[in-house]
Amino acid sequence: MATRPVSRETALGASARFRLAVTARYWDREKSEWTDGHTNFFTVWSRRTLAANVTSSLSVGDPVVVQGRLRVRTERTEEGESRTWADIDATAVGHDLTRGTSAFRRTTRDARDARDGTDTKGTTDTRTEPDWGTAPADESAGTPRKQLADAGVT
């Protein structure tokens, strides 16, 4: 991220934007090293719950992954020059986990709905993570391969 997220409340809910710098890297065969190419800048726009989560989760310099719709606009200035902007209407934004770690915290339904401006009726998101542990081996059931064969799977 090139700039910190800036948020504001609108009649349609929260909105946030930040600038994203994307630098292409390539292998320079002559120098036998990675070299930075041209840097492109995009303005990333997020709405409602995503805007609130972006504002509270991201900082300048964080490597991020953005998914959304790219919009390119061109306008003429008063001096007759043409200027082009590239915006991304984000549907998802997250930390780039190839470059580091992140600690995810689920927002409660009350907090999400309050940000969206909808009525929650006192409900909260109480889902828990499933138990991904493996069950102890049952010797009478045999090996997994035998279990599959007994079920008619070859």
TrEMBL record:
<dbReference type="GO" id="GO:0003697">
    <property type="term" value="F:single-stranded DNA binding"/>
</dbReference>
<dbReference type="Pfam" id="PF00436">
    <property type="entry name" value="SSB"/>
</dbReference>
<dbReference type="InterPro" id="IPR012340">
    <property type="entry name" value="NA-bd_OB-fold"/>
</dbReference>
<keyword id="KW-0238">DNA-binding</keyword>
<feature type="region of interest" description="Disordered">
    <location>
        <begin position="99"/>
        <end position="154"/>
    </location>
</feature>
<protein>
    <recommendedName>
        <fullName>Single-stranded DNA-binding protein</fullName>
    </recommendedName>
</protein>
<feature type="compositionally biased region" description="Basic and acidic residues">
    <location>
        <begin position="107"/>
        <end position="130"/>
    </location>
</feature>
<dbReference type="GO" id="GO:0006260">
    <property type="term" value="P:DNA replication"/>
</dbReference>
<dbReference type="InterPro" id="IPR011344">
    <property type="entry name" value="ssDNA-bd"/>
</dbReference>
<dbReference type="InterPro" id="IPR000424">
    <property type="entry name" value="Primosome_PriB/ssb"/>
</dbReference>
